[in-house]
Specification:
By secondary structure, this protein is an alpha/beta fold. The chain has one domain: P-loop containing nucleotide triphosphate hydrolases (Rossmann fold, 3-Layer(aba) Sandwich). About 45% of the residues lie in helices and about 15% in strands. It has a 5-stranded parallel beta sheet with strand order 2-6-1-7-8. The chain has a 3-stranded antiparallel beta sheet with strand order 3-4-5. The radius of gyration is 17 Å and the shape is globular. The chain binds cytidine-5'-monophosphate (C5P). The site of cytidine-5'-monophosphate has 15 residues, from helix 2, helix 5 and helix 10.
């Protein structure tokens, strides 16, 4: 039994999990696992190898000898694939969509479990994703499920993209986010659901710091290993 404390933050894309997890990890001095980056790296590797994203066999053949490293970075995580920095490609919308396709595959999920669990190091870990509290760290000290309405998430994403000089229509984002939610929530393996013991926060009308404050208020008991 590993008693290194883990705080999990699960929820749909665009609910603010990544930023909240980063701020919490910084405040608590904990390590950070952006599990979406692990699926994004697997998807990039599959794409780079020309794998068929609808075939588990083809994706597994592409990622079985994947050489990926994940390093903390001021913007979250820096990812190297085969020694090449792929961080910019990782954040692309196309990579996120490809990630949600390979993430439905049971063997893909199984193959990244050890990588994700290896982030659990003293003094503690904040892990964000879809199944952190339900599957990867079921014994987490605190499980948070962070959601927001699809409209609010699309608006936030549009703003993020605009800040990067990319113009998109809200309609196309609503469609993409809706399709990704659907795929993540209805898949057979590790679907996106709140753990029964999760603390649920709807961030639609909350700022990132409001969310962090709410979480910090319920975790004084988890900040030190027993
Ligand atoms: O969180 P992010 O948008 O980076 O995740 C990309 C995709 O990876 C998600 O849409 C989801 O399909 C998949 N994912 C997952 N389980 C996780 C994290 C991400 O299935 N723990």
């Amino acid at each position: 039994m590993d008693d290194t404390p883990v705080i999990t933050i699960d929820g749909p894309s665009g609910a603010g999990k990544g930023t909240v997890a980063q701020k919490l990890a910084l405040t608590l001095g904990f390590h950070l696992l952006d599990s979406g980056a692990v699926y994004r790296a697997a998807a990039l590797q599959a794409l780079n190898c020309g794998a068929d994203l609808n075939s588990e066999k083809s994706v597994m053949a592409a990622i079985s000898d994947m050489d990926a490293t994940f390093q903390p970075h001021p913007d979250g995580v820096q990812v190297m694939l085969g020694g090449i920095d792929v961080t910019p490609q990782l954040r692309l919308e196309t990579t996120g969509n490809a990630a949600s396709k390979v993430a439905v595959m049971a063997r893909v999920r199984e193959s990244v479990l050890d990588e994700q669990r290896s982030f659990r190091q003293p003094p503690g870990l904040v892990a964000d994703g879809r199944d952190m509290g339900t599957v990867v760290f079921p014994d987490a000290r605190l499980k948070v499920f962070l959601s927001a309405s699809v409209e609010v998430r699309a608006l936030r994403r549009a703003k993020q993209l605009k800040d990067k000089g990319i113009e998109v229509t809200i309609e196309s984002l609503l469609q993409e986010i809706g399709a990704r939610d659907d795929r993540d929530s209805t898949r057979e393996h590790s679907p996106l659901v709140a753990a029964p013991d999760a603390f649920i926060i709807d961030s639609s009308d909350l700022s990132i710091s409001d969310v962090v404050t709410q979480i910090l208020a319920v975790i004084p008991q988890v900040t030190v290993a027993e």
